[in-house]
Amino acid sequence: MSAGGSGGEAKGGYPPQTIMGLGIVGGLVGIYLGHFMPPAYSFFGGIGAICATVWGADAVRRVASYGLGTGVPSIGMLALGMGIIASLFGLSIGGLGGPVVAVIVAAIIGGVIGALANKVIGMGIPIMEQAMAEISCAGTLVILGLSVVIAGSFDYAAVIEYVIASGYIALIFIIGGMGILHPFNACLGPDEKQDRTLVLAVEKGAIALIITGFASSLHEGLMTAGINMIIGIAIWLVAFNRYYTYIKRDAYKVVGTGLLPSAEELQ
Q1: What is the dihedral of CA 142, 143, 147, 149, to 10 degrees?
Q2: Per-residue confidence (pLDDT) for residue 4, from 0 to 100
């Protein structure tokens, strides 16, 4: 892996335990609300996915700050890969407790992969095992939350039919992974700030809600899809404006570049 980040423990005002609580509690509450409430409220699954995205993004910044560079995108994709395995296993055997079972299985898978990365590959990152368990759990909750947005339920048969068989799982894999990996990848460096990184995670999670909200129209109808997209757009606007505020706070100077010059002007 190429060097990147600050080369040591990441600092921030929000402790990991607080963000982990947000991810687990917010993620599961959103998933269950989206499952039990009428289809028009499936956006709660997306809100749960946003909470999990913030958790995953914070776990990425903590582990990647030890020196992952090109490994930042890889670890985000790995999170969703582990999440797919854990979520489908949990839903297939867990019934109403499926999301909880999925999170437990994800923690085990992530811990094992983290141990292999440190003990076998020899990466030597002190928090690798814990971070991989957190990232795996966050990826699982993102998949479950966005699946609820599309299918209106976390029922195993519904998820298989409307998310897996339809191919939307590939969409969730990309946009969910981007939400977890992109915030630190975009903000890494000596001026990386936790609040700026995490609000970018909210912004990316809102985009995931908008996209899956649009996808939900095929199963849940245009009205539910419209509600999902409106909620996503509202969250995106707030998060993007806050992110831009933090950019202006942290940047040396923010200037407009104008339009790119034409080919003739460059000659």
Answers
A1: 10
A2: 38
* Any domain includes 3: no
Q: CA separation (Å) from 44 to 27, 57, 84, 144?
A: 9, 20, 20, 11
Range of the domain at 224: 16-253
CA dist 259 and 249 (Å) reads 25
H helices of the chain, where? 16-21, 27-36, 43-64, 71-94, 98-115, 128-151, 156-159, 168-187, 194-215, 217-220, 222-250, 263-266
Does residue 70 register a pLDDT over 70? no
In a domain, 258, yes or no: no
Q: Please state, rounded to an integer, the average pLDDT across all residues of the chain.
A: 89
Is the confidence at residue 176, as pLDDT, over 90?
A: yes
Provide the CA 3 distance to its chain's centre, in angstroms: 23
Answer whether residue 263 is part of any domain: no
Of the candidates 90, 91, 92, 119, which has an alpha carbon nearest to the alpha carbon of residue 106? Answer: 90
Residue 262 lies in a domain: no
* Residue pair 231/264 in contact by the 8 Å Cβ criterion: no
- The DSSP code sequence of 170-197 is HHHHHHHHHHHHHHHHHH-STT--HHHH
In this structure, which long-range contacts are made by residues 8-13, counting pairs with CB atoms below 8 Å and at least 24 apart in sequence? 8/65, 8/66, 9/62, 9/65, 9/66, 10/61, 10/62, 10/65, 10/192, 10/194, 11/194, 12/58, 12/61, 12/193, 12/194, 12/195, 13/194, 13/195
Q: How many domains does the chain have?
A: 1
Q: For 15-54, what is each residue's pLDDT tens digit?
A: 999 999 999 999 999 999 999 999 899 999 999 999 999 9
State the helix-helix crossing angle for 128-151 and 71-94, rounded to 10 degrees.
60
